[in-house]
Recover the amino acids of this structure.
């Protein structure tokens, strides 16, 4: 399949600079693209490739400074990444899933599976599970007792959806993610050992949630763990028991959120962030990667950084001085000597 | 099944405030509980819910200040979490596992499986493995060669128990955990590349150990990796080759322990802690989340915090000043000017 | 099988101190070894065990100070770890894999599998995949569409090799690793939600790459994620979309590398390191565990430490003063008082 610059410009509501009949057959990165491929410029750091690339078409931000040496046809759009998302959806819309249940799967009695769903090989679905229209459960997945999976959701290979988990519509669970295992909760018996607190709650994922590969979301002890609609969670993230995450919050890889913390909506967490338990984090909070949040965040739109995390700019300013600390120490020693001299001079 | 406040008070050795005949049928979180449910108050932050909740029964700490407006029946206990653990064990004691081996499993010749064990679908058990009474191996698990699994242990879906691993009694291995893969050990060949050091050791888990979802425990190179009895490990934790972890130590999510380190007993590590290799960590050491331990800890009961980790209170005090560093810098500059002036005045 | 000190010395090009006819049958750690076992001294911290151990043979560095009380036979070598790697390869060279495809696997039409490869139970291989000579694919693995796996590579149990991933020769993919899942890329639609950017790129692993258990490597959005030859990646590491990692770089556990960053060759990253996106990291850069790299590294061989990371020695020096900050604050307050007094004295 070939698609012309003109067709793409119509899909993206973009402006063409170059040959509107230029046709491309596949996408590629700006460094590697060949003449019949389309690429994009998403980051100004890569601007030099605009001249070097062999790509037939490049999607670029409309703010770009044009350059006579660019041999590719350009399509100018306001938001390159949003344009890309739409373009790929147009490309992929043609694909359709063939429903059906693999003979090599293992369905327990008392499960309810839509005839528009697809179950691949070596999948186990335990009693009481309900699987909606258009759901695709890929190889080696475990679906526990009384799990509910809403329309159009995809459960990738090796994911473990534990008992009573509820997954909304159009969710994506990436490979080897574990949703709904028991939380890390123990009581310490005075006899000298930990006693496990069973976890009777469940995990609820609302619609349009995505969970990254190898991430883990624990179920609540008595209440539930709740991931609200539109939340996007990256790989290797840990969400502990009884956490609530508000709508459209995005959490980058390897972040960990301890038990019972409530995160607001439209927050953004950089990778490897840690958040202690029993906190409330206000809406639209933005946290720099690797930060450690140790107290609740009350002000909407706070920007945080550091270990432990404080206001972003304050951390940056303090760290600037931190780098000068050895020099500062010398200054203080010099001042001490001078002041001592001045004092003894005065005393003379 | 309904259970009365009176019955619960007997199980928990608690004191009833309210209606001893009040009956409940299931547990729930304090925010969501309905009249026929039981909940608990585990954290003083939630005290306002004591009045707001619709729960029929609430388990509360005996230290609580009673309040006339609470409509629920209360059961006062000394340790709420320990009471919960006992209560749930009483509830779950009724459940029993039906032993048996799924026709959809794959047992190699020369394995020894108790007829009181249960093996689910798509499990592989390789030669020489020994599986004890009451063990439940869930779907898609891999049991390697010569693995030993003690009585009553549960291996959750997708866990990988690699060759020669020994698991004690009543252990719980959560979904997709990997126990006994080769450690990260290479020799650098002067020709310019790494050569793998094979790992001939194994992983030994003693009794009552729990390993979290997607955690990884590597086997030793020549000696063993040893996790002693009662140790509790959360999700996404990494334990490197030849590490020893002492009895009843608890390790929160995403912590990493580098090779050959020896951790004492009754230690507690907050989430995302890192510990470098070849250290000795004294018994009962407590480490704040995200800390980075770079040297051995000799004193029992040490409390550590920071990156790199130092004494907890010292880090807190230093960080308090860190936040004022820009202000301190100004003070020093002001002092320098004043002292210079005083000096030149003196010189006049 | 028994092997003598003499035979081992020949394999390792080492020098014997003791009985050249001393024979051992298996390896063990220096603390646990018995008389018919071989062990090694890899770390000077363990030197006291040289006298205490019962090991028949110990491989030691040639730089060691000899001691009359050592009862074991010693083999002196220049590099103990390199010697071990060679020794184990000699031991393991005898083992050979029996090729064949398990009847309990699921091969889609249009796959190409060498008759010298081995496919274990509950493996799915999707259409268009190509699997080379000597490849061993262990239980419960998922091989996606058009995946290519080069000669001699081992894919351990539960690994997920997603569509179009290319794996070179003699690679090792450890259990439950996920290679080639979609990256964490979304465009924010002004209507108030994230739209997924599909990932059309792939992951390419060159020869002799090892990926740790439960690690995740995402495929590129338009271009590829590239892991060059000889790279060694530990457990629970996250490599985001479009990252490039140069030859023979080693990355310790739980490290995360954000999107589009390019890492040079022969770099070494300590555990739990974080690297932000769109950076360039020079060859032979060495990074201390838990560091957070927030800007590009231009100088080859840089040594970095800290959060955010700066020059290693500078961080150490600043942190030394950080620990004294409360004391410094007192000094400054004292100086302020003294200077104020001096000033008012002058004004009198």
């Amino acid at each position: 399949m070939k698609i012309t610059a003109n067709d793409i410009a119509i899909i993206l509501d973009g402006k063409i600079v170059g040959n509107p009949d230029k046709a491309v057959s596949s996408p590629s990165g700006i460094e590697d693209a060949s003449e019949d491929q389309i690429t994009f410029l998403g980051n100004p750091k890569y601007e030099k490739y605009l001249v070097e690339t062999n790509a037939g078409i490049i999607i670029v931000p409309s703010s770009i400074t044009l350059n006579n040496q660019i041999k590719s046809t350009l399509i100018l759009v306001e938001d390159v990444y949003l344009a890309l998302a739409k373009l790929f959806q147009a490309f992929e819309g043609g694909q359709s899933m063939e429903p059906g249940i693999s003979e090599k799967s293992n369905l327990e009695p008392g499960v309810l599976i839509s005839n528009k769903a697809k179950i691949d090989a070596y999948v186990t679905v335990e009693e009481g599970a309900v699987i909606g229209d258009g759901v695709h459960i890929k190889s080696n997945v475990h679906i526990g007792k009384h799990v509910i999976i809403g329309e159009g959701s995809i459960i990738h290979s090796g994911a473990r959806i534990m008992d009573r988990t509820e997954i909304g519509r159009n969710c994506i669970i990436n490979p080897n993610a574990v949703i709904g295992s028991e939380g890390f909760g123990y009581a310490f018996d005075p006899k000298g050992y930990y006693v496990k607190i069973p976890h009777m709650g469940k995990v609820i994922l609302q619609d349009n949630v995505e969970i990254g590969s190898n991430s883990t979301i624990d179920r609540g002890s008595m209440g539930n763990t709740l991931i609200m609609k539109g939340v996007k969670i990256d790989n290797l993230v840990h969400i502990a028991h009884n956490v609530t995450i508000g709508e459209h919050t995005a959490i980058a890889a390897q972040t960990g959120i301890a038990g019972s913390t409530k995160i607001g909506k439209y927050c953004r967490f950089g990778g490897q962030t840690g958040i202690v338990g029993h906190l409330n984090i206000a809406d639209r909070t933005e946290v720099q990667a690797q930060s450690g949040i140790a107290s609740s965040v009350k002000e909407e739109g706070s920007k945080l950084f550091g270990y432990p995390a404080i206001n972003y700019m304050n951390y940056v300013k303090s760290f600037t001085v931190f780098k000068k600390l050895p020099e500062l120490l010398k200054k203080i020693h010099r001042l001490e000597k001078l002041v001592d001299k001045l004092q003894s001079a005065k005393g003379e």
Summary: Chain A touches chain B through 68 residues (CB under 8 Å). The first helix of chain A runs from residue 5 to 12. The mean pLDDT of chain A is 93. The domain at 3-92 of chain A is CATH 3.40.1390.10 (Udp-n-acetylmuramoylalanyl-d-glutamate--2,6- Diaminopimelate Ligase; Chain: A, domain 1).
